[in-house]
Design a protein that fits this description.
This protein is of the alpha+beta class and 77 residues long. The chain has a domain of 41 residues. It is 31% helix and 27% strand. It contains two helices and three strands, in the order H-E-H-E-E. The longest helix has 15 residues.
């Protein structure tokens, strides 16, 4: 299913803000479930070097990401 906010960069912005807040509070990893067919977010996590692990649970996956990857953060832009 698609909605008007897909493919507009919102996931990138939210992921960067999540990582920034996590780093500010000493959190080094975060995890979250998502639908297994959400390939865009899984590719994003991989492309920015944040993905640590991916575990499948039927129609969902659990992604574990690092909060201190070497990508751009909102403060750097």
């Amino acid at each position: 299913m698609s909605d008007p906010w897909q493919r507009r960069g919102l996931g990138t912005v939210l992921l960067n803000r999540l990582a920034e807040r996590a780093r500010d509070h000493g959190i080094r990893r975060f995890s979250g479930p998502m639908l297994a067919d959400n390939s865009a977010m899984q590719k994003l996590m991989t492309s920015i070097g944040a993905l640590i692990s991916r575990t499948e649970h039927g129609t969902t996956v659990e992604l574990v990401g690092r909060a201190g990857w070497e990508g751009s953060s909102p403060r750097q832009r």
